Amino acid sequence: MIFVKPGMSPKEIVRAVRALKGVCLTSVGMRDAGQSDFKNRHRIYDLKTLAPYYNAMGLFSAETHGGARWHVGIMNRRESPFEEGGILRELMPNVLHRPLSAKRTCGGTGPIRRM
Predict the structure, then answer these.
(1) Is 78 left (phi over 0), alpha (psi -120 to 50) or beta?
(2) Strand ordering across the sheet containing 26-27
(3) Could you tell me which of 87, 37, 89 has the C-alpha nearest to residue 61?
(4) Average pLDDT over residues 8-26
(5) CA–CA distances in Å: residue 112 to residues 36, 74, 84, 115
(6) pTM of the predicted structure, to 2 decimals
(7) Cα–Cα distance, 89 to 51 (Å, whole number)
């Protein structure tokens, strides 16, 4: 099922969601692949090969950016999250994109505080 079509207004999206008779699924796989603890962080080159499959899965949304992925992309790889968002938007037009927005995202990740 396609939830979102290019050009839909926010009101149209909300109306479509409210009319659903089930649950919506969100995948966090793309964001997680970019912030792996195993140091195999995927770049946009890798993720854009997966995007058409995400688009075909019938997902409501995909968490595509944020957290350590944002920080590592900007600080270490000198990648633009906005350029990446544009690439994924072209390849996944029928999926809502959700960036993770956390307090530390813009300031960078840091050590975990011990309590």
Answers:
(1) left
(2) 26-27, 61-66, 96-100
(3) 89
(4) 86
(5) 17, 21, 28, 9
(6) 0.69
(7) 9
Q: Where are the domains of the chain?
A: 10-100
Contacting residues for 61 by C-beta, under 8 A, at least 6 apart: 24, 26, 27, 95, 96, 97, 98
Round to whole Å and give the CA distance between 79 and 73.
Answer: 5
Q: Where do we find the tokens 């690439």?
A: 87
Nearest to 26 by CA among 53, 63, 57: 63
For helices 67-75 and 81-91, the axis angle rounded to 10 degrees is 120
Q: Coil, strand or helix: which one is 14?
A: helix
pLDDT digits (tens, 9 = 90+) for 50-63: 899 989 988 888 88
Angstrom distance (rounded) from CA 52 to CA 34: 17
How far is the C-alpha of 44 from the C-alpha of 30, rounded, in Å?
Answer: 10
